[in-house]
Amino acid sequence: xxxxxxxxxxxxxxxxxxxxxxxxxxxxxxxxxxxxxxxxxxxxxxxxxxxxxxxxxxxxxxxxxxxxxxxxxxxxxxxxxxxxxxxxxxxxxxxxxxxxxxxxxxxxxxxxxxxxxxxxxxxxxxxxxxxxxxxxxxxxxxxxxxxxxxxxxxxxxxxxxxxxxxxxxxxxxxxxxxxxxxxxxxxxxxxxxxxxxxxxxxxxxxxxxxxxxxxxxxxxxxxxxxxxxxxxxxxxxxxxxxxxxxxxxxxxxxxxxxxxxxxxxxxxxxx
Length: 271
Ligand SMILES: [Mg+2]
What we know:
Elements: E1 13-16, E2 23-25, E3 31-33, H1 37-47, E4 50-54, H2 62-71, E5 81-82, H3 84-94, E6 99-102, E7 121-124, H4 133-144, E8 151-154, E9 159-162, E10 165-168, H5 170-181, E11 186-188, H6 193-203, E12 210-214, H7 217-226, E13 230-234, E14 253-255, H8 258-270
Helix pairs in contact: 1-8, 4-5
The structure holds magnesium ion.
């Protein structure tokens, strides 16, 4: 039994990151499942533990993203997923914000009901090929021209891993806009505390009763711990061995993959 497992007493809910934990994205079919993950999700669902998926994915609408995961074989539904774009739409409406969008084409439908005329804020997501100089500069001009520049960033990841290698994530471009305009972005998505809290609320579980499993030492593990949750890092996806010596974040445990994490958690529940 892994040493960290003894800290699992009272765990009632599991929060799963998706990319790098369930599957690696990229390639023709949109990605490949990480071995053992499809079964691991099924095991959590039959265990009686509450389950929530918590992703920073913003290259597709939540519906399309879930469809892809279902096609790959995962037992997952749209109403089980906490994602940045729907959360950002709530904030925009609450604060009467009209965004200029610098996002991936495939996530634009998520903002269909949001007024985008005469923008009074900027929303930046993982825009991938839309992060051209032209688009970044246009976004910069909108932002610096605002009386009160509001920059909302859908996550702040540095990089993620696709099947053909590491890719720059939204955080890099968020930082560029922050630097250019001398402002601080508001992050919607991991590691923001509010984002984890909304996932926990959906599960009806208190932070100390929940465990996060992710491949990002800062945004998944660090963010969840800041919120009062336990957190494991998987050695899949963007994991690098140096993560285990991270100067600021120490996971409650490190596991080879989701399958191992779930086996240890379930074994502990039976003790
Ligand atoms: Mg991930």
